[in-house]
Amino acid sequence: MHTEDNWFSTPVTGGLLRGAVEVEHTEHGVLPHRLPAWARAQNSDGQLAMAEAQPSGVRLAFRTRATTIELDALPTKRVYVGVPPRPDGVYELLMDGSPAGAGSVAGGSTLTIDMTAGTFEHSPGQPGTVRFTELPDRAKDIEIWLPHNESAELITLRTDAPVEPAPDRGRRVWLHHGSSISHGSDAAGPTTTWPALAARLGGVELINLGLGGSALLDPFTARTLRDTAADLISVKLGINLVNADLMRLRAFGPAVHGFLDTIREGHPTTPLLVVSPILCPIHEDTPGPSVPDFSRISTGRLLFRAGGDPDERSAGRLTLNVIRDELARIVKQRAADDPNLYYLDGRELYGEADFAELPLPDQLHPDAATHRRIGERFSELVFAPDGAFAPGDVRSSGDTDTGRGA
After folding, report:
1. Shortest CA distance to 62 belongs to which of 28, 30, 33, 95?
2. 144, 178, 175, 180: which is closest to 159 by C-alpha?
3. Would the pTM of this model clear 0.90, i.e. be above it?
4. Residue 280 DSSP one-character state
5. Contact 78, 111 (CB under 8 A)
6. Axis-axis angle for helices 320-335, 249-266 (nearest 10)
7. 40, 106, 250, 334 — which has fewest CB within 10 A?
8. pLDDT < 50: residue spans in the chain
9. Euclidean distance between CA atoms 280 and 259, whole angstroms
10. How many Å apart are CA 340 and CA 118, to the nearest integer?
11. Which pLDDT score, from 0 to 100, does residue 5 have?
12. Measured on CA atoms in the order 70, 35, 362, 277, is the torsion positive or negative?
């Protein structure tokens, strides 16, 4: 253990963070957010409040010769009533882009969730420390990816050598919005959610606005996308609209147009990719809502089934196939005047053959292996020379995207 004299303590600030839309200063330190305060103020849904504060895709980025790195943080753990305890969130360290360590922060505050009652109860706790050791004594770029499924107030970074913010390597910024699948539900860790994997393979900087349960065409989300500097943008829409049974076909089409119109107000010529849902057999032709099956919850296994009636599609109830058809139609219509707008059928990322090999464990969310497959497929299709996000400088001088992401 180093003595106090040869430690360098660095307060965590926005200058060390990438992938966050905003940083809140708290009693303990800083809390990264993936929606700005004005957007959070327009939301009354506890699920979205929890999701946007979980820093999926957010990482500390700095350059140092340090051989030992410690990060003090106050995490908030989720505890589900009647369910075995969840594992602690994982902090993953990348050194010059390669995995070089992982750890967790024990303890912390708890958010107790009663899924049957729909209640949330917060209990305060104490900070802890994650430690990375035996790193080489040379100048190196370090990234510490924060847990994708556990919020954390970041307090102090301690190292045995000085740190400085990581230099801008000139990589394009990819801004992505989606559901819990994009957020990283059931991924092995923060660097192996499918967007994080695709970003690494595509050589881009990720800002992940995948919001578990909350890809619902909210206007404040569209305005956040509009106001966030980016070189590439994708929106993966559909599954949450079905499993929440949120709207009917009459409202869906205009809502998608409005969502895309708002994004285009801030990014008129940026490559914009609309991605429809991956295969989810329970909702391909059966409307929502998704109904939780608690029969195996005591073993930690939650399953979902479709609660709608397929015969009600004629009344405008949404299914995944209905949504794919409408998204494809809307993009085709708009692309006549918007040559930088693209569409990708989500079943190209995960389709029937994939489901036969790698079924969705709870009938709704992909597991770790499937996250990897989706990330690799996205990179192959979208970052390819003929893909929507083909390599090269695609920013137009007439666009308003003048900065890098946070």
Report:
1. 95
2. 144
3. yes
4. -
5. yes
6. 40
7. 250
8. 1-3, 394-406
9. 24
10. 42
11. 62
12. negative
